[in-house]
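Incident review: delayed structure delivery

Summary: a single-chain prediction request sat in the queue longer than the usual turnaround. Root cause was a stuck worker, restarted by the on-call engineer. No data loss occurred. The affected request and its eventual output are reproduced below so the record is complete for anyone auditing the incident later.

Affected input:
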Amino acid sequence: MNRNEFKQFVVECVNEIRAGLSEGSIDVKIKANRVMEVIKKSVRELYDIKMMGGGKLVKKDEFKQTLNILNEKIENKLKSEGIDVGCPIYFVSDANRGADGWYDPVTKSVYIDGDEYFVDGSYKSYSTIKFNDMHRTLEHELVHREQDVRSGGKLFKTGQFLKNGKLKFITAKDYEEISKKFNFDKMDNKEKAEFIKWLMYYNDLSELDTFANNAADRYVEYMVGQFSLTIKNYIKRTGEGSKREYSSDDVRKYVLAPIYGAKEGNNREYFNLKFLKNKLISYHRGYKFLSKENKKKWWKYVIMALLNHKFNPMTFNK
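Output delivered after worker restart:
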């Protein structure tokens, strides 16, 4: 999409939301937030009793046993706090899946790679565990679980990537254009297989929504950080007020200024549509693999995810 097409597209999304015509992408944020609090508490407990952490070297069999204990803690806490995830969540080791997490439509379970988040030869210190990344992985897989439920199990059936031996989610023209962009003809067989794998993965309809949610979350996180920095610098520079409070609507207006600016025809600020577009694209590592049609679908999901985001009020003390 060129600049004018993108602007019109964003305006249409805003109008749909205001008219109540769209529910946006699948939203599992509240559930993911509650589950992550349980995971953090459970991990903290194992670090406190030195079962994890302390710079200890990790032995595979012992680590698997520790993860079993962690999984049991998480399961019990979810039950005691009345959190219905809808599927089991397991931290696993030595899975060799090449992913930080995955949803298995056969076992109807979410799996998270314990090696990735807890281990670096020895146990990582609690403070260096990337809980934000873990949160995004969890949310990504919970969206897949919801997709599976809503489709009655049909979305993840075997053979979803290929239909009559051809790629199912992109046209022959799209395939030709994307492969040309990647210099497919100059690749060796191994590189070609890798290219096809990622082309299928990122154009899989079940992945468009999850990566849209991920990009929207990372954009919001960045902009909230910018808002915080702006206010703190203002207080420091002017000395005005010992306490400043901003409502959730104030935060929303700042974070989504490029979108609302497009609606009002004002697109000359630094945080404009060009900034928004480039920032969101940078948060999707597979964007360049998407077909033209799937790019449009992804943009629809990501803009709707932003417009439906629940913002919190912010308070700043001098």
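Verification: DSSP finds twelve helices and nine strands in the chain.
Action items: add queue-age alerting; document worker restart procedure.
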